[in-house]
């Protein structure tokens, strides 16, 4: 006796089952496995004038005149994506979408290696983002004739904000990017001092969405140490009676 699983004719797999005694009643329960997401990776990043990823997560246009916005794609194990890829930026206030010029490609993405795509060169004079605005970065594809967002729906979105000469890319929940005034955050040297009644948990994420600090508190103040952390952009998330998020730019000093 054997169990045969078939996705298609070429993908049939056979699994032997241990001998079953003829006096016993055999029960075989087959459940459909959870389908892997189409893409295992859809990482948005900033790139410098050598097309290298900017690990700090921000560009200072006063020091670097040219940069690109990029995305690295890789399919889940056993899956392949073949189709168009476009990138859009959505203003969080107005919901207006603007296509990121240069990322408009037909690609084949497998699980073997990353496929990087880059925008055209960006400089201070041609930025499509308004000063002081926050944008959600959307990577779009097409699957079975339907336009879809590429990436994991349950992961934080990639967001971009321009503040004068500073362009910052970070991950967070778009509806909570702007700080809620129920809390106060100030920097004292290499410490962040969080104040506000009802604060329960303080979490600090790096630009890749990884949790790097977590503090639980039932008081009115919490202190988050930045000592020893790489310089770059971070997202500080406060949870309590009300929630809030702040972007933190850490210069390593």
TrEMBL record:
Top-level taxon: Bacteria
Name the record gives this protein: T9SS type A sorting domain-containing protein
């Amino acid at each position: 006796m054997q169990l045969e699983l078939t996705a298609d004719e070429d993908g049939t797999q056979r699994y032997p089952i241990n001998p079953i005694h003829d006096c016993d009643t055999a029960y075989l329960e087959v459940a459909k496995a959870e389908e892997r997401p189409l893409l295992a990776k859809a990482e948005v990043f900033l790139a410098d004038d050598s097309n290298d990823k900017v690990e700090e997560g921000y560009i200072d246009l006063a020091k670097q005149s040219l940069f690109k916005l990029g995305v690295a794609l890789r399919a889940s194990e056993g899956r392949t994506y073949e189709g168009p890829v476009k990138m859009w930026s959505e203003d969080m206030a107005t919901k207006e979408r603007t296509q990121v010029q240069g990322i408009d490609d037909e690609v084949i993405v497998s699980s073997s290696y990353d496929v990087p795509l880059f925008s055209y060169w960006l400089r201070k004079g041609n930025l499509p983002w308004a000063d002081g605005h926050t944008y959600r970065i959307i990577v779009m594809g097409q699957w079975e004739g339907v336009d879809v967002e590429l990436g994991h729906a349950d992961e934080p979105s990639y967001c971009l904000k321009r503040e004068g000469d500073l362009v910052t890319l970070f991950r967070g929940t778009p509806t909570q990017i702007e700080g809620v005034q129920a809390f106060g955050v100030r920097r004292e040297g290499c410490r962040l001092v969080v104040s506000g009644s009802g604060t329960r948990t303080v979490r600090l994420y790096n630009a890749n969405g990884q949790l790097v600090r977590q503090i639980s508190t039932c008081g009115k103040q919490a202190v988050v140490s930045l000592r020893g952390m790489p310089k770059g952009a971070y997202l500080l998330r406060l949870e309590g009676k009300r929630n809030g998020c702040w972007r933190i730019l850490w210069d390593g000093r």
